[in-house]
Amino acid sequence: MKALTYHGPGRRTWGDVPDPAVRDPEDAVVRVDAVTICGTDLHILKGDVPEVEEGRVLGHEALGTVTETGPGVRTITAGDRVLVSCVFACGRCAYCRTAAYGQCTGGGGWILGHLIDGCQAEYVRTPFADTSLYKLPEGVRDEDALLLADILPTSYEVGVRNGRIGPGDTVAIVGAGPIGLAAVLTARLYSPARIIVTDLAQSRLDAAKRFGADTVLTSAEATPEAVRQLSRDGLGVDVAIEAVGVPETFELCTRLVRPGGRVANVGVHGRPAVLHLEDLWIRNVTITTGLVDTSSTPMLLDMLAVGRLDSGGLVTHRFGLEEMQEAYDVFADAADTGALKVALFRT
After folding, report:
1. Which residues sit opposite 204 in a β-bridge?
2. 250-286, pLDDT tens digit by residue?
3. Tell me, what's the pLDDT at 202?
4. How far does Cα 163 stand from its chain's mean position?
5. Does 311 score more than 90 pLDDT?
6. Could you tell me how far CA 190 lies from the centroid of its own chain?
7. Burial of 9 by CB count in 10 Å (0-12 exposed, 13-18 middle, 19+ buried)?
8. What is the pLDDT of residue 270?
9. Statement: residue 310 has pLDDT above 90
10. Long-range contacts of the stretch 7-12 (C-beta < 8 A, 24+)
């Protein structure tokens, strides 16, 4: 089959690799019908995730059709249309028993396109099929469901839920890429008083406005003083969500929050960021980090199915699966192409 493989920083290949097969009783093999590219894949290609070995098939966001299951799989059968989650759960370890699937110690967690071959391919092997694949309801479009593989649960769990957004809060979201925009979308579920979004690119700020941001600021405009003035009493925002993954944006978030505020870091960091405890210790600021657990995926999928979650507009570019290299180029050059999410479909 064809797949996108990693060959060291800056090097990727679309070419032939062996077909996946069931190895363990709880495995399933899924024919990939739709797949996308994540900002984390770009971090891998920059060399920010050294655990990824050369030759690894990348990708951790897909949906498709089950073609084969192992003898231990009970709830998933060949022919099922399924969402392939970015996080896998053994279902038995102490972390899985508390729905902290991202920290699974039984062979799950974020493994796809990281520690095992991923789904930017024609077929993918998926461990723990019963607990890690989600049957898709009839009537849900592939393009919409694809966003539930990673960015929507990530933004919701690591940004909105960790940040404890509540009614009447002032929220700042730093970064209006796909994760930041998904954070706007899911933050609105909690009725904050104001959502402020900042980014370098005007096209992404325009998208944030379309998704429900109340105020958008360029990076030059988003000084701590300017953002504090947009809060209800000038003391700062209740919640700042970091959705970029560079030191400057994390440090900005810590300067935007009010005393007692929360910083929810979602971005994937490849370099150290300074934690200014000399300023923060006295202000009762809470900082959270996290890898998505995908415990919210069934709930978000239900909301999508009944029309309570509108993710339309996040996918801006569409390709055939065989156009993977072009799709990477477009996604990586988002400043010029205007790409938010790209989606690739089996043709």
Report:
1. none
2. 999 999 999 999 999 999 888 899 999 999 999 999 9
3. 92
4. 16
5. no
6. 20
7. exposed
8. 81
9. no
10. 7/54, 7/55, 8/47, 8/54, 9/45, 9/46, 9/47, 10/45, 10/46, 10/47, 11/45, 12/45, 12/58, 12/325, 12/328
